[in-house]
Design a protein that fits this description.
disordered C terminus; disordered N terminus; single chain; globular
């Protein structure tokens, strides 16, 4: 390997001299030789440009000792975005082309190099245990190749993800319906009708703040694109999560794609951290009695915490845990004192839960009790609980309704914790409990967090991009 500009120039001269000798030996005319030499010189200049631009990013690059002199990224960090300050627009475009477009024959190699720099854990000596990172790495090649196709990348012909181009930047994040591509209507439509919705704070910061050039913006978009591709693919997995995650007896088994669920080990630490440890965390609302599920699409609900008030955090900290633990005697006695353990409530699987999940079980028992008292459908009862209006309820049913409101729906953790759930809408945690009871009234739900353990730049970018409308970017620090 040659690792200095001087050695690189010397090596290039020797290669050109050897090529000139080979061309003359072939008996080519002077014009043909001149044309061949021009092409070779242009190729060498291109390699030198790649070297220069990649080096300006903070990468240490080397040239493979062969006729093609392929560029390889060996070390360094692509995060030195300050080096973009002196680059002009023309060089910006050239850089993005040179990273992938000019080395198409080595696209897979370049993709791996890019991933190594952006996500050190994605391609390591040992296979990563985090399915997210492994899946993320599979998007690298498509992303780097897409850069070469158009300055409006990563638009594609398959109708897939549409996002940031060099000229459009993040214009698709504007809150006017006309600027939202069809693919985003479902995802962002529910945000656009909210009075509090503004153009994403995170995207504004990205476009107007520390990343001042289109080149830096495009480089950041590489990360966002790969992360979005992963979660876009995960949308299909959300629909069938119950098949791979939930099995009987409250025994949760991770699938070969989804990461494992955390049985409160790290969740407790995140709860102690408060808002910064919880906002942006992905989790799972799982049916405890999967064999009694009526609507399989809602047997398991993947979610992301998009907002929590200080009161909600304090309330959760009082519960201490999300809840996959043994009941203690006080909790069990509490249920017995309430005289709620009747029928399905006696199922031994409930004995595995405490904390927040315990309160969710309490909601289900109260919901079931109120349903029997009122003879209402689960759908009508769910809507009534979400509105908080008792209507014509009276006597015992009114008492149960008020108990649901005061003990669950008005409790800060359930009232002031907002989660984004598939398929693409956000509600308070209490509203989600009522929603799930509408579809599957025969089973209670528990709550857990996924063990993604993402504390790097890709998770930060993910939070900024997807949660910017709900939560200021400055609050979206990694939760580690």
């Amino acid at each position: 390997m040659l690792s200095s500009h001087k050695a690189h120039r010397s090596f290039s001269f020797l290669i050109l001299f050897a090529l000139l000798f080979q061309l003359s030996a072939l008996g080519l005319s002077q014009g043909e030789m001149d044309q061949a030499l021009k092409q070779e010189v242009a190729s060498k200049a291109e390699i030198q440009n790649q070297w220069n631009f990649l080096s300006s990013l903070g990468w240490r690059v080397e040239v493979v000792e062969n006729l093609k002199q392929d560029i390889q990224i060996k070390a360094g960090s692509p995060l030195k975005l300050k080096s973009f300050a002196d680059l002009k627009g023309e060089k910006c475009l050239a850089l993005c082309l040179q990273v992938s477009g000019k080395v198409k024959s080595k696209a897979a190699t370049v993709a791996k190099q890019v991933v190594r720099q952006f996500f050190p854990s994605a391609i390591a000596d040992k296979a990563s245990q985090q399915a997210f990172r492994l899946k993320l790495a599979t998007q690298a090649r498509a992303t780097t190749e897409a850069i070469a196709q158009s300055f409006e990348w990563p638009y594609n012909d398959e109708g897939g993800w549409k996002g940031t181009g060099f000229t459009r930047h993040f214009s698709f994040m504007k809150t006017t319906q006309a600027n939202v591509p069809a693919e985003y209507e479902e995802l962002y439509g529910y945000w656009q009708n909210k009075k509090s919705t503004k153009v994403s704070t995170a995207i504004e910061s990205l476009a107007k703040g520390k990343h001042l050039t289109g080149c830096a913006l495009a480089l950041s978009a590489v990360v966002v694109h790969m992360v979005y591709k992963v979660y876009d693919d995960f949308t299909e997995l959300f629909d069938r999560a119950y098949k791979s995650v939930i099995i009987n007896n409250a025994d949760f088994t991770p699938s070969d794609v989804l990461p494992k669920l955390d049985f409160d080990g790290k969740a407790k630490a995140k709860i102690r951290m408060g808002r910064n440890g919880l906002i942006g965390e992905p989790g799972y609302l799982g049916a405890i009695f999967p064999e009694k599920v009526d609507e399989p699409s809602y047997a398991g609900e993947n979610f992301i915490i998009v907002d929590m008030t200080d009161q909600a955090v304090k309330d959760l900290q009082g519960l201490k845990t999300l809840g996959y633990n043994r009941f203690d005697e006080d909790d069990l006695e509490s249920l017995e004192d309430d005289d709620l353990l009747t029928g399905d409530g006696e199922d031994g699987r409930l004995m595995y839960f405490d904390g927040a999940s315990f309160e969710m079980i309490r909601f289900w028992i109260l919901f079931s009790k109120l349903k029997k008292q009122t003879k209402m459908s689960a759908e009508d009862l769910s809507e009534k609980i979400k509105t908080g209006e008792p209507g014509r309820l009276k006597g015992a049913s009114l008492k149960t309704f008020k108990q649901i409101q005061t003990e669950i729906m008005e409790r800060p953790f359930f009232k002031e914790t907002t989660i984004w759930g598939h398929p693409s809408h956000d509600m308070t945690l209490g509203e989600w409990l009522a929603e799930l009871a509408k579809y599957n009234p025969k089973t209670p739900y528990s709550i857990m967090l996924y063990d993604y353990d993402l504390n790097g730049m890709q998770w930060e970018n993910y939070k900024k991009t997807f949660l910017g409308d709900q939560v200021p970017a400055m609050e979206l620090r990694p939760a580690g």
